[in-house]
Design brief:
heterodimer, A: mainly alpha, two-stranded antiparallel ribbon, 14 helices, globular, B: mainly alpha, ABC transporter involved in vitamin B12 uptake, BtuC, two-stranded antiparallel sheet, 4 strands, transmembrane helix (chain A)
Chain lengths: 329, 334
Amino acid sequence: MSTDQAIDATPTATPLAVRFQGWGTAITLVAVWALLIAATGLYRPDFFAHQTVLAIAFTMSIVGVLAIGQGIIGISGGFIDLSQPACLILTSLIAVRLSEAGLPLPLVFVGAVLVGMVWGAFNATIVVLAKLNPVIVTLATNFIGLAALYLVFQLAQVPNGSEIYHMGRASFLGLPVIWWPMLVLIIIVGFLMRYTRYGRRITAVGGNRFAAQARGISLKKTRFATFMAAGGFVGFAAVLFASAAGPFNPSSASTMQLNVIAAVILAGISLAGGRGSFWMLLLSVGFLSTIPTSLVFFGLSSDTQSIFQGILLMIAVAIDGYRARRGTP
Amino acid sequence: MTDTTAASRTLPGHLPHHPLRAALTGSVASIAFTFIAVIAVGLIWIGPKFVSFGNVSIIGSFLIVPLIVGAFSGFALLAGVVDLSIGSIVGISAAIFAWLITHGWGLWPAAGATLSICLVIGGLNALAIVRFGADPIAATLGMLTALRGITWVLCGNQRMIPAFDIDFFTLINQQLFGLPLFFLLAIVLTLIAAVVVTKTRVGRHVQAVGGDDRAAARAGISVRGVRTAALLLSAVGGGLGGMIYVGQLGSAAGATGLGLEFQVYAALMIGGYSILRGGVGNPVGGALGLLAVAGVANILDLGRISPYYVNIIVGLLLLAAVLLDRLRGGDAYE
């Protein structure tokens, strides 16, 4: 285990500039988010209402949990999981069918998460056995998955009055019930990735896979672990999605994909792998989820939402690329 | 030196280079076999109707825009900078062109203005990717989203801009030898692109930059220049595609070109290109990929089978094609 020392050591030895860099991301995100809220509030004081908080929190919950999965793929050097929409719809359908069968809510969660993990294992199998790049593999499985889902169903919805239906409409401490699991999961995963051996091994693989391999970390096992974990988070997000979204069809999740990728990049989780903090996801997801609501208050149509999201994503990746080129982590 | 070459020739499993075998095992050959297989299945299942002028004409008019967009964006793939925003560039080009025509602009000034805007878009892509080193997939995904939003806004509440111009309509939908004129032109364009890629110095520079940018830079090739030019070309292809859609449909809609990038890139990858590493692929292979996918869609359509099977088949073909590319010596992941 002595060869693992450098990877498993606590990050106390990181230079000051590196630690400051992380805070820079956090301060920037908080500042931009606060600016957005202040600007909207000054323009329309009725923005400061409980209704606004609820709208933002609903968007945050699903995007946040999906972003954990996307972040795990990104930080481990798998770049992007483009099959999240297909996996989300598949597991949402599972959640609907399970709750139609009258299963209690915990079992619905277990079922959706397990199916999500199977989906992730399927992706990982192709990546590992055929040695193909995850981007193309997940692009293809998303294609195949969504088409197959269209053959299975056109519209689905959780049964009225079921446990899962009530969960999507209940609130706790003034926020939607489905917001809290997102918060807890991001905090836990952020802790696991930073302070446990497994988390740091995943990050090490993303930073330099061959160096990690030379230190005895199995790349194949890491791929299976990250893809299955990511699939599990998609399955979890699917239950939240199914509970709150109302009727959905196989293409309902396609617009969410971009938000999730943008959130991961804005949080500073490098797509090239190897660095980033999952706690930042709370800020980036919160900021991105505020944009649609703000635009409505500014009287702009929902079409303009994607203009802002797209430009933001471009700026974020340009900064990400510039930092990588400069060599600063 | 002759000793080492002789030694390498006698190695077991290592066959001497032969142009015919290289052609038969190359990426264009495998997509050509796939294409022939698709035609064979069509002939057996649908019958001679499948290759009739009427049916090929229908497939051809659907393929005009994908072929043109594919021929241009193929240069970006070759240079190692994938441009995912092409579908949205087609959309915004159609919307701007239709808007200008309905506001009294002539066809040519409108076309010129539309292409200029597309060049600016390509320039912005190049600024982010080449100047700042942004990841091409993520950056152009952002561009894709932003442009689609602008297209929706331009199309307004009607969700479309009607722009029927009888002269333009007849020009675009002209027939020659029983096939759409622009389909034939798109094939000629593909052949020109293939000659540029394989036979000219410019083409070799593009391949060199995509294959290994550091080696290309050391050989004195301007990596930034080539990549910027490739992204500009890709945007021009999208611009042309959007204007042709306006000619074909007589209007621009908010959803014009939606998802075209996946349709085109899946076919191009089946045809031997790669969206992750540059330097591989050939415009002829890409065009055959588009033809093969369109043939599959047409067979399923004529056979009254759900169109969703097309995407399943495209996905499987895509995986098979990238696997074949890797077995042929492409980069293995890990």
